[in-house]
Amino acid sequence: MREIQIFDTTLRDGEQSPGVNLNTNEKLEIASQLERLGVHVMEAGFPAASVGDFEAVKAIANAVKNTTVAALSRSVTKDIDRAWEAVKYAVNPRIHVFIATSSIHMQHKLQKSPEQVLEIAKEMVRYTKKYVSDVQWSAEDAGRSDIEYLKRIIEAVINEGATVINVPDTVGYLMPEEYGELIRRLKTEIPNSHKARFSGHCHNDLGLAVANSLAGIRNGLDQVEGTINGIGERAGNAAIEEIAMALHTRKELYQAKTTLDLSQISRTSQLVSRLTGMMVPRNKAVVGANAFAHESGIHQDGMLKDKSTYEIMTPETIGLKKSSLVLGKHSGRHAFRDKLQDLGFVLSEDLINKAFEQFKELADKKKEVTDADISAIVEEEAITSPQEKYHLDYFQISSGNSTIPTATVRLRTEAGVTQEEAACGDGPINAIYNTIDRLSGEPLALTDYRIRSVSGGTDALGEVFVRVQQGEISVNGRGMSTDILEASVKAYINALNRMIVKKGEMDNGNDSSREDSSCTL
Ligand SMILES: CC(=O)SCCNC(=O)CCNC(=O)[C@H](O)C(C)(C)COP(=O)(O)OP(=O)(O)OC[C@H]1O[C@@H](n2cnc3c(N)ncnc32)[C@H](O)[C@@H]1OP(=O)(O)O
Ligand SMILES: CC(C)C(=O)C(=O)O
Predict the structure, then answer these.
(1) φ, ψ for residue 355 (rounded to 5)?
(2) How much is the pLDDT for 514?
């Protein structure tokens, strides 16, 4: 059976989803989960984009053990230098250099002739090869490029030493049969195509990213690119979990497999959803909450008689196993440690102890602590930085349908100083947020507020996601608690701390990204 390499770009194209802005700790957390999932390559970022991106790629390159770490770069020497500076620490580094090849992009965006683009592509692959042997080259907007030109430019960059040729359908324009045919022709008609591996990168503008990737695989792709949960620019990228499960479920058709540990899919999906704030729709294939739920009588009857009647894959395959050990307030460190191991976490003693304290606190409030609760606690502990300026000490709220909502909040600063304030608002959350604004002297405009429960039941752990803005800068914040007001307070304080860091970076001229990668035209 052929092996298809999975190139994950959750941390690069995935982070290009409007409204997503991950910090280095969050990216490291996702990177280590991607390694557990077993992706072949992870694209850690675009180092020339900002100091934040550069530092994150460098940190990931240092942390990741086996997986190839790729850094994206435009076809300009200063971007390539920056990409190498960040990715050189990886055990297996790759530089991914791209340039657009469609007439639309060459004429209107690059404002260069096809011959100029051809020369730049050759020169930049040659330049990148001075740094690293593993060079991936992408023809941006290949899906709308002239195939004869595409064949010429690909042949030329392979001659310069490109090891992987990526064929993006950048704007999700092609139909599966067209994308498959494009890959077939490139592989069979380019004389030196056997000297490079071919890769697909499909976008989901018409909802066909996964179908196109699969068509590419049937026609000879060796690598496919995608993101967890299909997040990414505009309508997103091909969802890796869907490609992997399609190959697994229809082995007889594709005769291809990936190196993924499929049992890590569910956890990876939940982690990416939590840290990016991009909720997974309930009916999403493979990882949606309803993907293995059966509602109607005839289906339930079939399932009770034989699961194969309505399930083409099992929830266990993607790691949704029923827990045999139920953790609650009477559980001790051994059971907790055992559970962490079972969930695949490898943590330092210090982190285990901190997570255990959080677990005990939660178990006091909740009858049964689920696997999802534990994963959420551990992941939150792992990314919480002790250097945050403000911490919640205490809050109190008075609210009702005939009183003016009033909040009192006490914050503790990193220096141990406490400050207390009170304020009113239109509702309890507004009152709390007004109070925090007064305390910090850093009024924030709330542009998004979302709440979801981590697990089921009335005592479920609630997670609040906020997005706030100050001037031109936007940041996200998250908070968790069994009390949704407390989760709301924590989310706002988290956003405030991130805003302080972001403003500090910008004052030091360290970051060019005022806004997250979203843009309103
Ligand atoms: C299809 C994709 O997903 S591609 C990846 C998209 N990701 C990003 O854009 C990452 C975030 N981007 C950024 O931070 C910025 O755009 C930067 C730092 C990369 C560049 O910023 P700036 O120098 O201010 O340029 P700006 O973004 O306004 O314009 C892009 C320039 O790069 C050029 N360009 C675009 N793609 C390429 C390429 N592959 N190779 C060479 N030049 C390119 C454009 O033609 C334009 O050039 P011009 O200034 O001569 O007109
Ligand atoms: C940079 C390339 C691979 C890309 O993201 C695209 O074309 O969509």
Answers:
(1) -65, -35
(2) 47
Name the helix (H) or strand (E) containing 206: none
Let me know: does 174 contact 138? Beta carbons within 8 Å.
Answer: no
Ligand 1 within 6 A of 285 CB? no
- Biggest CA pair distance of the chain: 79
Whether the CB of 16 sits within 6 Å of ligand 2? no
Interatomic CA distance for residues 70 and 39, integer angstroms: 12
Residue 269 lies in a domain: yes
Closest residue by Cα to residue 474 from 60, 20, 46: 20
Contact between residue 236 and residue 227 where contact means Cβ atoms under 8 Å apart? yes
511 touches ligand 1 (CB under 6 Å): no
Question: How far away, in angstroms, is 140 Cα from ligand 2 center?
Answer: 6
**pLDDT tens digits, 212-256:** 999 999 999 999 999 999 999 999 999 999 999 999 999 999 999
233 lines ligand 1 (CB under 6 A): yes
- Rounded Cα–Cα distance for residues 402 and 145 (Å): 64
The CA 11 to ligand 1 mean position distance, Å, reads 18
Complete DSSP assignment for 107-152: IIII---HHHHHHHHHHHHHHHHTT-S-EEEEEETGGGS-HHHHHH
State whether 350 and 379 are in the same domain: yes
Domain containing 247 equals 2-276
The 10s digit of each residue's pLDDT in 400-434 is 988 999 999 999 998 889 999 999 999 999 999 99
Statement to judge: residues 73 and 194 lie in one domain: yes
| Residue 306 lies inside a defined structural domain of this protein | no
Q: Which DSSP string corresponds to 36-68?
A: HHT-SEEEEE-GGG-HHHHHHHHHHHHH-SSSE
What is the DSSP secondary-structure string of 268-279?
Answer: HHHHHHHHH--P
| Amino acid at site 443 | P
201 carries a ligand binding annotation:
yes
Q: 55 and 142 share a domain?
A: yes
Cβ–ligand 1 contact at 516 (below 6 Å):
no
ipTM for the complex shown: 0.98
Nearest residue by C-alpha to atom 8 in ligand 1: 49
Query: Which residue's CA is minimally distant from atom 2 of ligand 2?
Result: 140
CA of 518 to the centre of ligand 1 (A): 14
Q: Give the whole-angstrom CA distance, residue 145 versus residue 103.
A: 7
User: Based on the structure, what is the number of domains in the chain?
Assistant: 3
* Cβ of 141 less than 6 Å from ligand 1: no
Between the CA of 136 and the centroid of ligand 2 the distance, in Å, is 12
- What's the CATH number where 87 sits? 3.20.20.70
